[in-house]
Structure formats: structure tokens, C-alpha cells
Amino acid sequence: MPIKRRQFIATAGLAGLAATALSRPAIAQTMPELHWRLTSSFPRSLDLLYGGCETFAKAVAEATDNRFQIQTFAGGDIVPSLQALEAVQNGTVEMCQTAMYYYWNKDPTFAFATGVPFGMNAREANAWLYHGGGNDLLNEFFKEYQVFALPAGNTGCQMGGWFRKELKALADVNGLKFRIGGFAGAVLQRLGGTPEPLAAAEIYSALEKGTIDAADYLGPYDDEKLSFNKIAPYYYYPGWWAGGSTLHIAIGANKWAELPKAYQAVVTAAAALANVDVQARYDAKNPAALKRLVATGSQLRPFPQEVMEASYKAAVDIFQELSDGNANFKKVHDAYMTFRNDQYLWWQVAEYSYDNFLIRQRAKG
Amino acid sequence: MPIKRRQFIATAGLAGLAATALSRPAIAQTMPELHWRLTSSFPRSLDLLYGGCETFAKAVAEATDNRFQIQTFAGGDIVPSLQALEAVQNGTVEMCQTAMYYYWNKDPTFAFATGVPFGMNAREANAWLYHGGGNDLLNEFFKEYQVFALPAGNTGCQMGGWFRKELKALADVNGLKFRIGGFAGAVLQRLGGTPEPLAAAEIYSALEKGTIDAADYLGPYDDEKLSFNKIAPYYYYPGWWAGGSTLHIAIGANKWAELPKAYQAVVTAAAALANVDVQARYDAKNPAALKRLVATGSQLRPFPQEVMEASYKAAVDIFQELSDGNANFKKVHDAYMTFRNDQYLWWQVAEYSYDNFLIRQRAKG
Asked: Mind listing the domains of chain A with CATH numbers?
């Protein structure tokens, strides 16, 4: 056996390679040179999110020997952040990097692509998307918007935001002016709070003046850069509306169909690379940022249990109401929630007890 | 702006693509036709593990329009399962898919690549590998074995194995004959147990006869296939020696260096795709398998706290002893554990409290 194997290696060695390479130029010539543009929903300042589309574009270029080049633009450079999907739909750009839940006003079904209140954590979301039918279900829905999309990053569970005063009970949510959007804002309203959809640049000043009482942004690494800790000392967790937010690369459906199969495979693998890479970078960066925030006076607070439970109940009610009036929503909701419940059935056994033990051991020093 | 953009799209449309493709055949011709062989450490019966190298090879072939083909062989087909790394080192095959901790007898430093007792969970491991310096540190070490390796899959936290009798206290570990290997076996010995390194095919009969008292294998999906539930009713968790086991694709260092940069990029992205894909598949498959096992009488049991704590202490002692006598080990150990501790500092805040809430809500129905 070993001798035979070495013979095989010898004949398939470098000399052989060069010969076969020259014998098949026809196939290689079918690979077109492409220059595409990608618009991101994220600014350069959110460097880990925006970095996801740079990682993706770099991987595609390198894997195709620079024949398939994707120029990336930050939100606002050529297309406003929240119009990234429309820009793909109308052919302004070939692709975008976005959080699909930004389009929940078009159809709340979009939210399941990114994550919904009390939805799956990041790893469970990947399980659903890649092997629970999620990607197929969502792309069936995305067809209505003429896009094909691939998961391409995750933030992990986000924080619950910065509060000027402690939130001690459910009653404190009544009248709370909270910078938060989308689905979470709808839940907040059910609890008597007021969602305030401010742009990132407006948050600090509104929080400082007391125009708003609290502001959600993302997690330690991104939040630290906006200095919320200087004006709102209480840093709440968890972000129950963002237990594991998936980013997507969305591609014009006709553009996707036109791509050679090899380029489709490159894009698919590059998106998966961005998926694991964005999450890894967030996880690598968040601990040090959290330490710095706590060292400069930020006080970590869990949301009171009754706030969590009331929010959960309100979310379930909204899911039900939306399901009643929207067949798309109902279809994806039912599949998503069935999968989530099974995920947590399993997660509570090995994963959760393992993490629980390590967390307690660490606390002991 | 919109008009300009549409003009850009028009000129970069399909007609333009064909022309540029024809104008640059020289570059495409430099991409060689390669036929490589990959030997796996896993049998086909472990279809999710072995499936990881099939996913990887398929992605490489598709992304290169079948110019770079990797033929995959299951453990034992051409190389024994635990000699996969040597087969790459000696050039028998160009690459392998393996769990690096199988080679811990050569140097215990290998164990950090896959995971060590009370090590990082799957997502934390990715954070360390991709953005905490882990991949670089490990590849520096792997140079001594003439291989370059990339993470290419994870099982998530594994179960703690099948026990004929309940393990109620630390004293029950004394004299326990447990089918378990590697680092976990060394820890077990410190607690008075006996590690029994049986091959998978030997476990059922040994457990049935009582030659061994307990057997670790993997998790619900894989364990179910071997029917351990019929002869050992107690199914323990968590597998504290496998909190998130990373698989690797290892490539001969000289073979890696010879690859065109574009193929290196394809292999890197395909390995990342396999990484997220194997984990997603395990997470998607395990819940239903767990339900079936419990429905047929398997009884879930957490390891007693004192067993967990004694195992933790023994593991820390072994880490210290190995660090004292092995500079490679100490270097990687110190980096790994510092990173792990910071990961759990952060994990306990948002992730853990989020999962905790969802687990309890699910239990309520």
C-alpha cells in the first residue's frame, strides 16, 4: 500500500499538474471577470459589522484570483443604510449586506431572517438556517423581493441597553422613552413604553438631555465607542430582542442566477466564512470592552424577571396577531418557533450545564 | 445618482463580461488541475463528522469548477483512523480531516486544537482560533509536524456517556471502568477510575457484559445509532472533556505552500463553511435523537457537582504538570486559558442569561 500511494503522488505531482492545467484552458476561460458593488447597511464605525462585508468581498476576490471583484460601500456612501435591500431589488447594486429585520415594515416576515424577540441564539439560528430549512423558507419569501440571501455574520446575544435610572420593576417600563426599533419597539409599546427611533448620531445628546430615558445599541465593543457609559450608568442585559442577530448578504435574484456555478459556490463559502468570522470577532472583542466599561463605572443589571416575562408574553401575543393576518409570517413563524423549542430542549442539557459550571468556577477564581 | 448607477450597471453587464473574460485567459490558465486525497479519522457511520470532509471537498470542487478535486476516504479505507496526521506528514495523502487531540500522545499540546477538559465551548473556541491568535499559535506548533491546519467543524458540547448504574457521588468514580480516552482518561485516573480505550465496535458488548461500567461516545445523534440506551440506562451530561470539540483539515505544509493563492483562499473559505455546517447539522439533529432516547427509557442525569469539581481540580493539576515540563504546552495553555476566562466573563452576562430565560420559559410550556 505505501509504495502504491507514493507512486500515485509522484505521477500527480507538480509536473503532471502543469501539463493538465495547460490541457484544459477552455473551462477556465468561461469564468468571467466581474466587478460588482455591494452596499452595506452599516457605517464604517461599526467596524465588526461592516468588516463582515469586507471579509466576504476579500474572500471572493482571492478565491477567484481577482476575477470576481466586489467593491464594498458603507451605509450612506452610495445608498442610504436602510435602503440597501431596495437598491438590490432595483438593480442599483448587485448585492447588499444588511440585517433583514430592517425591512419588517414591508413585511414582518423579514424579522425571522435576523432574529425576533426571544428567538434563537446565534448557534441555534445557524442550525435552523443551514439544516433546519430556514435558508430555503426565507429564500422562498425573498423571491417576492427579487433577492437571494445568505447568512453572513452574527453578533451573538446583544445587551439590553443603557439606562439613566435603574429599572426595578415592570411598572418602571410604563412611560419609558427607550431608543429601540422594530419588533422590540412594538413589544415595548404593549408594556406602556415609548420606542424612540433615533439615528445613532442622535442618541448621546438625547440621552444626556433626558429626552430619552434609555438607549439600546448593540454590545460592549460597539457601545463603548459611543460613550453612553458617561451619561447612563446602568447597562442592562440580555437584549431579549436580539439573542443572536444574523446578518445577510442579499444578491439580486437575476444576478445570482446569471453567476457561473463556480462563482455561486465561491460566494456561498465566502458568506459562511464571514458568518463565522464576524461572530468570532465580536466574541473576541467584547470581553475587554466589557471590562473597560465596568472599570469606568458602568453597572451591569439584569432585566427584572417580571419585565422579561411581560415582554415575552407581549411578543407571543404580537406573533399570534401577525400570524392571523399574514400567511408568510405564520408559515415562517411556526417553523422557526418549533425549531427554537427543540433547540432549547437540547441546549439545556449539555451546553447550558457546561457553561453554567465554567461560569461558576471562573467566579471562584 | 440613480441614473449614473444604472449606466454603470449597463456597461458592466453581460456583454462586457464576456469580452473581458476572453481578454484575460492567461491568468485563468495558471490555475492547475489538482487531484488530491484526504483521509479522514472518522468512519462513514459517523455521518456528521465524516460529512464535514465531504462538505469541504464538494465546496472546493465547485468553487474551482472541478479543477481542484479532493477525493475523501473514511478512516481505515486507505489509512488507519488514528494515523491520519502521519499520513499527511509522510506524504501518503495531501490532507486529512481529524481531531487533533488524537495525537496528544505525541505532544499534549495537540489537545488545545480540539479542546481540553473544561475548555472553551464551540463559539468561544472559534473566537480564540480565528481572532484570539489560536490558529496562528497552533500552526506555529503544527510546523514541527509539517502540517498546516484549519478549523473545519465542531460537535458542540458532547454528552458525558452511558452508565449502567447511577453515579451518585465522587466515591462512585473510584474503580469505575469507563470507556474514555486522551486527556479525560488522565483526569479519570486521578479520581480512581480506569480509562478503557475500546474501539467503537467493542463498546456495546463490553458494556453489555459489564466488562466496563460506562462508555463515552459523543452525543444523542451518534450515540443513538450504537444502541447504548438498551444496556446502560443512565445518560450523563455534560461531557466536561468535550465542551466544544473542533475538527481540523490538516494539509501537508509543503503542499499548502505550493497551492496557488486562489486555491488557498478557496480551501480557507471551504473549511469555514464546513466549520459552521458540521455544527449546524449536529445542532439540527441532536434534539430529535434526544427525544427518541428519552422516549425509549434513557434517563438523563447531570454529573454530581462534586464529580465535576474534583475533575476540574484534577484537570488543572495535570495542566500545571504538563506546563512545567513542556514549553509548547505551557505557551498554548496560558494563551488558551486566559482567553477562556475572558470569554466566560462575557458569556455569563448576555448569552447565559438569555439562554437561561428561554430554557425556563420553554419548560413552562
From this structure: 32-155+244-284 (3.40.190.170)
